[in-house]
Q: What sequence folds into this?
């Protein structure tokens, strides 16, 4: 297929596809799916070999959020029956992180619900970062605390944070339909603050919220301008008790097209399969490893994920290897300048979740399980 040959050539040269090419990948048929995966897999292997980076989430504060993001079970007015607790102490967070690190994770992602941190919250998270780093040599720490005020990114960097995550989630045109308590511009501003402070910027999206292909391609190009080092691709988990609980638009085939698009547009960036892979990719998860070079290990913020041991077995059975601590994830031309500083044509993230493949006849609500273990509970975590 001429389209795929063109995209592979561009990916190996770190050139970005055109908008028309991005849309064309999403419009490929199920008959062409394995060809699409194979083509994007060539680009993935060129830049990242067969390495898979493992990341582990620690939910520092669950629920109790004043924002109204429609996709989130922690939102204002959510009726989802999730765990709710206030800030974990540094030693509690460090113990939670240790479970993921012992399972092979090299990055810990510290997440807290809320609009954004107060200065006291930044102090609290800084103490947690220091505790984790003191006990785990070589670990990467990413913070995800919401919208940042001036100077907060610099303080997190001084405390030892390596990265900051803040997703754009959807296009600017449709953002107001998903969230009303803050703006798309607010999110862009926070990613820029993190980047300017020398943190490795992490920003991605959520596919499957009912947006069009065109909307998601808009997100692609917005992310490309921001140039994050890592791009998490979330597939909506339609949690009962949230406004998007009935949004079941994704199929495994569609998810693979989404990830292939991300790889073609972001050939040399860390592409991470984030929330929802178990729910929507299901038995096709191993194929997704040919497209993404990074996944979350174990559970998510408020929902349960695949067992950590099953993740490791899946990686090995598919012929991939866990990326070891100390190994630099990004290619030298992106990582050589230090966290968050790189030049060139390599870029960010895209995804989409609309028509192709059709929606499942029946929503797989049986695959959505609320997290009842790990951080904020007395039960052992899944890692």
A:
């Amino acid at each position: 297929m001429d389209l795929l040959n063109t995209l592979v050539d561009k990916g190996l040269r770190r050139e970005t596809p055109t908008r028309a090419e991005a849309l064309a990948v999403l419009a490929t048929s199920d008959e062409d799916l394995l060809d699409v995966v194979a083509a994007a897999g060539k680009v993935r292997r060129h830049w990242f070999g067969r390495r898979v980076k493992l990341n582990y989430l620690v939910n520092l504060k669950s629920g109790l959020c004043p924002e109204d993001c429609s996709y989130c079970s922690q939102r204002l007015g959510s009726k989802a029956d999730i765990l709710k607790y206030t800030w974990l102490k540094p030693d509690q967070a460090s113990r939670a992180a240790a479970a993921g690190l012992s399972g092979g994770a090299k990055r810990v992602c510290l997440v807290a619900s809320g609009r954004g941190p107060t200065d006291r919250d930044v102090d609290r998270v800084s103490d947690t970062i220091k505790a984790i780093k003191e006990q785990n040599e070589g670990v990467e720490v990413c913070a995800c605390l919401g919208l940042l005020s001036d100077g907060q990114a610099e303080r997190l960097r001084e405390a030892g944070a390596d990265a900051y995550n803040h997703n754009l989630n959807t296009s600017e045109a449709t953002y107001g339909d998903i969230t009303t308590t803050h703006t798309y511009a607010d999110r862009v501003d926070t990613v820029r603050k993190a980047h300017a402070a020398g943190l490795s910027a992490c920003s991605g999206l959520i596919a499957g919220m009912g947006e069009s292909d065109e909307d998601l391609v808009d997100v692609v190009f917005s992310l490309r301008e921001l140039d994050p080092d890592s791009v998490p691709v979330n597939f909506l988990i339609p949690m009962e008790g949230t406004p998007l609980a009935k949004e079941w638009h994704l199929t495994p085939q569609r998810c693979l097209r989404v990830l292939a698009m991300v790889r073609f547009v972001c050939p040399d960036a860390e592409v991470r399969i984030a929330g929802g892979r178990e729910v929507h990719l299901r038995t096709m998860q191993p194929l997704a490893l040919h497209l993404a070079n990074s996944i979350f290990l174990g559970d998510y913020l408020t929902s349960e994920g695949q067992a950590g041991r099953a993740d490791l077995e899946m990686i090995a059975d598919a012929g991939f290897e866990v990326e070891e601590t100390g190994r630099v994830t990004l290619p030298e031309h992106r990582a050589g300048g230090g966290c968050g500083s790189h030049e060139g044509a390599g870029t960010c993230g895209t995804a989409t979740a609309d028509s192709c493949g059709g929606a499942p006849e029946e929503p797989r609500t049986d695959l959505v399980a609320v997290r009842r273990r790990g951080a904020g509970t007395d039960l052992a975590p899944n890692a």
Residues 119-135 form the longest helix (17 residues). Residues 337-360 have pLDDT under 50 and may be disordered. The two ends are 41 Å apart (CA to CA). Residues 129 and 160 are 6 Å apart (CA to CA).
